[in-house]
Amino acid sequence: MESSGTEGSRAWFITGASRGLGRAFTEAALAAGDRVVGAARDVSPLDGLAAEHPDRLLALRLDVTDRTAVFDVVDQAVAHFGRLDIIVNNAGALYAGMIEEFTEAEARAQIDLNVFGALWVSQAVLPHLRRQGSGHIAQISSIGALGGFPSTGLYSASKFALEGLSEALAAEAAGFGVKVTIVQPGGYWTDLYTSSHATTPNPVYDSLREELAKQWAGGSIDSEPRLAADALMTLVDSDDPPLRLLLGSMVYDLAFDISRRRMDTWAGWEAVSRAAEKAVPAPGAEPA
After folding, report:
1. Catalytic residue among 142, 159, 179, 205
2. 3-state class (DSSP) for residue 287
3. Which of 46, 116, 213, 285 is 20 to 30 A off residue 34, Cα-Cα?
4. Which of 15-19, 205-209, 212-216 has the lowest mean pLDDT?
5. Average pLDDT value over all residues in the chain
6. What is the DSSP track for 184-238?
């Protein structure tokens, strides 16, 4: 049964809250009796939820690529609920195409949204979380951060960058009582692929596209976003959350498979790796 009160409830800030996983996260937080700031470029899909929870859901329009707007909206969120406890950097998009096909504008748009958007939100919330000495930032990454795959290379690049940024953030924020978790979801029935942006095809990659089409011919068998939301609730309820959390058996198995293959490759080239290092004094240093 949903709690009707707000005393003691947590305050969430969720980007991309109006659809897909973000919508599922918002619904799960509200069902737990928590308060939510749902941020999105278009918040109209949240109108029904806002009417059901007028005191616990604040929908705010936000383009996370606009740094000034991000800081303003975060300040509004803190002023409204008094604090923020859980930050979910979920806003993102997929730009599909071969690496050679990307225009500068397309490449920058992919990185601006998936990397800089999460960076601006993280920067905006940190002063508030530091002051209260607590908070949990969940960075929604992807199976695409496990490796680079044909036609989703720029998407993977953005998620690799997000994860490197987030590892550093976790170490920097830990001393202030702020936790960071990188969440790596597998396949869920969202509009990530149906709303993806595609590059202009270069015919030299037609044979590769045909090969990929055959691999995907069976269609995707994905999960309900609710299951990802259930996992996120378990995560934020933990007193000792992990730095990384895989969501789904497929992504779990793939992560281990990719890691083993990388370790095998490193081991096979160990002699070359070790031969490339021999410590010497700094050039020009006086001998001891």
Report:
1. 159
2. coil
3. 116
4. 212-216
5. 93
6. EE--BSSSTTTT-EEPPPPGGGHHHHHHHHHHTTT----B-HHHHHHHHHHHHH-
To the query of whether residue 155 is one of the catalytic residues in this protein, the response is yes
Query: Has 278 been annotated as catalytic?
Result: no
* 66, amino acid identity: D
pTM of the model: 0.92
Q: Among 6-15, 217-226, 242-251, which range has the highest average pLDDT? A: 242-251
Active-site hit among 18, 122, 151, 155: 155
Q: What is the Cα–Cα distance from 219 to 216, expressed in whole angstroms?
A: 6
Nearest to 229 by CA among 183, 181, 160: 183
Tell me if residue 93 falls in helix, strand or coil: coil
Looking at the chain, which runs of residues are DSSP E strands?
Answer: 11-15, 35-40, 57-61, 86-89, 95-96, 135-140, 178-185, 197-198, 244-247
Q: Is 141 a catalytic residue?
A: yes
Instruction: Tokens for 143, please give them.
Output: 């199976």
